[in-house]
UniProtKB/TrEMBL annotation:
This is Lrp/AsnC family transcriptional regulator. It comes from the Bacteria. InterPro entries: AsnC-type_HTH_dom, Dimeric_a/b-barrel, Tscrpt_reg_AsnC-like, Tscrpt_reg_AsnC/Lrp_C, WH-like_DNA-bd_sf, WH_DNA-bd_sf. Keywords: DNA-binding, Transcription, Transcription regulation.
């Protein structure tokens, strides 16, 4: 169970996990040692899945990104679908994959160095897979917002 302090700590950790317990104590009315203990408990309890570094657009803005909509074959068996999902999970260029409702079954964000790399990846992942009925690629022109954040401090947490 999470209390209001845990939720506030998780909100701050999502924004910047490199902050010290001392700096967090300026915003959350707990001692730095209590903050450190809570953050350790939240990590050990699986409330924080992992900590990553998000690269600056200075390094990533020239890369090719595509949102790929994937429609699975009506006759796709569960084994074929699971194999495709496994390959998506293991492919480094796949930044996220969501199972969605509507005309398409999957939404996949792919990040590649250039168009040649994207074409090779798309042909290997989608075009040659009998599980995939069709796929459509939409290329990112410009990143307007990237902020993976889920507010918890105002939500019911118990």
């Amino acid at each position: 169970m999470l209390d209001q302090f845990d939720a506030a700590l998780l909100d701050l950790a999502q924004r910047d996990d490199s902050r010290t317990a001392d700096s967090i104590a300026a915003e959350i009315p707990l001692s730095p040692s209590a903050i450190a203990r809570r953050l350790r408990r939240l990590r050990e309890g699986g409330w924080i899945a992992r900590t990553i570094a998000i690269l600056s657009p200075k390094l990533t803005s020239s890369r090719l990104r595509a949102c790929v909509l994937v429609q699975l074959s009506e006759h796709a068996d569960q084994r074929g679908k699971q194999e495709l999902l496994r390959r998506l999970h293991e492919t480094e260029e796949v930044q996220f994959a969501y199972e969605i409702s509507g005309t398409y079954d999957l939404l996949v964000l792919v990040d590649c160095a250039n168009m040649d790399e994207f074409v090779a990846l798309a042909e290997g992942l989608f075009a040659s897979d009998a599980t995939v009925r069709r796929y459509e690629s939409n290329f990112v022109k410009r990143e307007l917002k990237f902020a993976p954040f889920v507010r918890l401090s105002d939500a019911a947490t118990s």
